[in-house]
Amino acid sequence: MAQSPPQSGQSPIRQLQTVADLLETPALARVYAQVLRDGPVTVSDIVDALDIPQGTAYEYVRKLETAGLLEKTRDQRPYEYDAEPIALTLSAAEETRTITPALIAAVARREADEDIDVYINRHGLDGLAVALEYAFEYVEGTVNHRIAARELDLSPLEAEIILQALEPVATEYAEERK
Question: What contacts 70, CB < 8 A, 6 or more positions away?
C-alpha cells in the first residue's frame, strides 16, 4: 500500500530547504527571528518592526508557514502567526552542528552588522555557529576573548569583534540554552 504524502508544509525535506534558505537569506531569517521573539504577530506587525515591503513580508510568511516553521494562530483577518523553534542537528565527517533560533538570529543580523557579515565571509556558517557557542560563554563570563581567540584560531582582535557582535544574540537567547 502506498504511503500518502505528508500534508502541505510538514515535509522534512521542505523544512530542511527552508532552514537552508534562512541561513542564506538574512531578510527571511529576520522575519523568522522576529516572529519567534514577538509572536503571535500579524504581517502588518512584521512590516512595521522590520521595515520591509508588505509583499516581501507576505511571501516570507507564506514560505515559513508552508515549511511548518510558522503557524497561523488566528483564523480571522488579520491573521496572526507564531513560530516553531528550530532545533536541527546536522552531522558530517565527524562534526556536528545544531541549527538553532539563536544561529538564525545571528544570520538575521548579517545585513545590519558588518562584523558578522565579514566573519561569515571569512569563516563560513560553521565558523559562525562555533563562534556563537563561545559568545554564549562570553556572556556567561566563563570565556574571554583571548580564550576564544586561541580556541577559534583567531587573532585576539578578531575574536573580540565577533564576540561583541554576537553578544546581543547570546544575551537574548541565553535562556533557550538552559
Answer: 32, 35, 61, 64, 81, 82, 83, 84
Reported as a pLDDT band with limits 50, 70 and 90, residue 55 is: very high
Dihedral over Cα of 94, 125, 165, 41: its sign: negative
- Residue-by-residue DSSP string for 62-101: HHHHHTTSEEEEESSSSPEEEEPPP-EEEEETTEEEEE-H
Average pLDDT, the chain: 90
Express each pLDDT in 78-124 by its tens digit.
999 999 888 788 888 888 888 999 999 999 999 999 999 999 999 99
Question: How far apart, in whole angstroms, are the C-alpha atoms of residue 142 and residue 158?
Answer: 19
What's the per-residue H, E or C state across 23-46? HHCHHHHHHHHHHHHHCCECHHHH
What are the grid coordinates assigned to 49, written together? 518592526
Query: pLDDT at position 72, please?
Result: 94
β partners of residue 145: none
Name the pairing type of β-strands 80-83 and 88-92: unpaired
